[in-house]
Amino acid sequence: MTDRYDYLIIGGGIAGVTAAETIRENDNRATTIGIISEEPHLLYSRVLLPAYLKGRVSREQLFLRKIDDFTEKKIDLNIHEKVLFVDIKRKEVGLANHVSIGFEKLLIATGGAVAAWGAEDIQDFIFRLQTLDDADRMLGALDTIKQPLVIGASFISLEFLEIFVVNKISPTVIVRGHHFMDRILEEQGGEILHDNFAKHGITVQTSDAVKEVVPRENTLAVFTEGLRRLECDAVAVGIGIERNIAFLDGSGIELGEKGVKTNEFLETNIPGIFTAGDMAEFNDTILGKHQVVGNWTNAFLQGQRAALNMVGKREGFKNVSAYSITNLGLQITAMGDCVDASDTMVRSDRQKPQYERFFLKNGAIVGAVLINRFQDKAHLARLVQAKTAVGDYRDLLSDFQFDIHEIPVVG
Fold first, then answer.
1. Contact 155/163 with Cβ under 8 angstroms?
2. Widest Cα–Cα separation across the chain
3. pLDDT category, 379, cuts 50, 70, 90?
């Protein structure tokens, strides 16, 4: 570690490492590049953590870089180092070990951590799936878990459910909505998911939430707002993440509702300071609003784009975000804006099963949820990005006989 870098990156995940490597590829001078990462591990694939717990990949296969990769590219990697503050006037970051590191340009890519859940005395029963350490801990417990409870209706919850099923454990999932993922799926989509859950021995408790958890000797007694009592010996928490932004308090870097606020170039209100990945609350010019997107592909693309902007190849970040998962035999994708829409159209076939819900705003498709219709994803992304008005095609969207590819991309 040196005392000053031309480019300093806080965060050693996919956004930060991609940014460092992109800077080096586009600036081969004697430029100094440093990464500070709180993680104790080298870069690994977070998206493969569920596969690791399903026995489909080894622990070694999770790692995407070796230390020699950084040495060869003259990138200083400093792991297990915590940043406490950023001083924008002095262009310095302060570490927990009382060392200060200077920078000319800074990228903040610290991601997030799973929100706190449960009292201190039950944490031995609580499992998360954000880090490799989380996965290692869960792997060590799978042989003893018999009655797990999954909290929440997220993509991570889907991963937990399949992990348990693959390991021949029958889970229960509790969700606040009338059905799983009711924020983006209406009733017909919920029926398809619930049919599949039942097929795999998953019990779903809907319209309910945990009110109190009482520890027993080897189990938990869970009391719900709906007056249910559930017994479990593990709780898998799939409730989303909180962005790691506390170290920016008082720095002068503008924060948004969920993360670090940026323009379309992923640059903050402070020139020369950028952000990327889960914590970037960026100006999405496709959807016309600031938003955060917490997935691997987005983090990679933003790390790349932010780096190019940092070296002077300035261009706005444009990408139709998408979350995709193959879960218990169903391929599920949520793309674009599936919340802030004024109109929706649905087509569903419970028997096949297949499902699509299109979200429209001002006559154009702005988002979609697909179940077993992955073949439509790429064309829908082009329609969303071009802000194509669907016009007379709108009413055809409810019929699977209509091929979505017939809508021309115009815009």
1. no
2. 66
3. very high
Whole-angstrom Cα distance, residue 383 to residue 404? 10
pLDDT digits (tens, 9 = 90+) for 382-396: 999 999 999 999 999
Question: In this structure, are residues 112 and 221 in contact, taking their beta carbons and an 8 Å threshold?
Answer: no
In a 10 Å sphere around its CB, with 0-12 CB exposed, 13-18 middle and 19+ buried, how is residue 410 labelled? exposed
- The pTM of this model reads 0.94
Q: Is the separation of the CB atoms in 130 and 113 below 8 Å?
A: yes
89-118 residue pLDDT tens = 999 999 999 999 999 999 999 998 888 899
The DSSP result for 71-105, as a single string, is HHTTEEEEES--EEEEETTTTEEEETTS-EEEEEE
- Quickly tell me which residue has 């229960």 as its tokens: 172
Listed in sequence order, the residues at least 6 apart from 387 whose beta carbon sits closer than 8 Å to its beta carbon are 286, 364, 411
CA dihedral sign, ordered 129, 185, 380, 261: negative
Give the residue among 213, 237, 232 at the shortest CA–CA distance from 153: 237
Reduce the DSSP state of residue 118 to 3 states and report it: coil
Cα–Cα distance for residue pair 148/194, rounded to 1 Å: 18
Residue-wise pLDDT tens digits, 34-93: 999 999 999 999 999 999 999 999 999 999 999 999 999 999 999 999 999 999 999 999
Give 341's strand partners: none
The amino acid at residue 145 is I
Amino acid at 297: T
